[in-house]
Amino acid sequence: MTVTTDDGVRLWASASGRGEPLVLCHGGPGLWDMFEDVAALLDDLATVIRWDQRGCGRSERCAGPWTTERFVADLDAVRRHFGPARMALLGHSWGAQLALAYALAHPERVSTLVYVAGTGIDPVTDWHPAYEERLLARLGEDPERLARWQELPKDDPERAVLQWSAEFEDRARAPEHAARMADPWFGINTECNTALNAEVRHGWGTPELYAACRALDLPVLIVDGAGDIRPRSAVDSLERTLPRADRVTLPDAGHLPWVEDPKGFREAVATALR
């Protein structure tokens, strides 16, 4: 189905299951919804609402704007389209940052926030060098794969699959999991990715952000995979700051914990929704 934003951009969206609404915010920036497995895991617990962010995936190609404020407004258009006054939010990676930004802007419209594999609220420079080092180390397990990744353009599907293979703790199954992420392939919006990542680099780690998080009176569940190549210590800043945060770390999972530990992921989210 189609959700139309207040500035006329058409967003792809889908709903399944039954119960109170749970809206999912996918990662990226510049990617698309890859939550089909998550919806299947949770659709007996909630009405699961998926959507592709502005200019990405199955949503209308547009010229932006590529700002968190604009994406928060788009997420609110999704909420209005499906009707709930309040919704639970689950965001993954960049989508976790977006879901947090929405909750800070509209806390009265959020019942619960599930923050999956995000990177906290400290400056990006505190964790990104360690992430880059770990990414190269995992790709370097196969020198030919690393060399191939380095020579391909950033929006190439083969490069994406090679990079995504570093996201999984189970190294034997990592190529299979990464290939599933790219099927179907909708193309990476590199302009969106560049702009929003630059905004996060400038906006995270500010006193204003810490103060806003300290004042956020919402239940928040942080879900990590212990094998995520983004250092999990990055999320400590958020856990310390939020007044009502719980945290579950799944020991045998990487950056997409529902793929490698679906049972543990479902149990954690089910507890938060209850």
TrEMBL record:
GO CC annotation: membrane
Keyword field: Hydrolase
GO biological process annotation, one example: proteolysis
InterPro entries with a match to the protein in the record: AB_hydrolase_1, AB_hydrolase_fold, AB_hydrolase_sf, Peptidase_S33
Domain AB hydrolase-1: 21-261
Pfam hit, one: Abhydrolase_1
Family recorded in the similarity comment: Belongs to the peptidase S33 family.
Annotated protein name in UniProt: Alpha/beta hydrolase
Species of provenance: Streptomyces ferrugineus
